[in-house]
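Continuing the series of single-chain predictions for the mutant panel. This is the parent chain; the variants come on the following pages.
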Amino acid sequence: MTWWLWGDDEHCDKRFNEAGTHAMGLYVRAGSWCMGKVRYRPEREIPAEWFVPDDQVKAWCGSVRQANRLVDVGLWYRARGGYGFAWIRTENTADTLRAKRAAERKKWEARKKLRRGGIGGSLQ
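Parent structure:
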């Protein structure tokens, strides 16, 4: 499962406070949507950067105005056909997701090898 992490200090971040609660909700929702789009996809299909298409923002009724607020305060940027994240927690980047998947894959491969009797010891 993929997760869009939200920290315990975003509630007091000046940019989110300027954008407002509804825009903050859009930011989190869009991040969750991005993670959901790649949840079961192979690594080669994970984009270099997260992108939220205009159509998706419009589908979340009333969100275009909130998206523009995120752009105004520097949390998003306008891109052709949608929006990108101008600020993003390191834990939420596509590169971090790839690294987490690689670590999980390595852990599972070691467990398989252990079950087959290939190595001794235990895995934590």
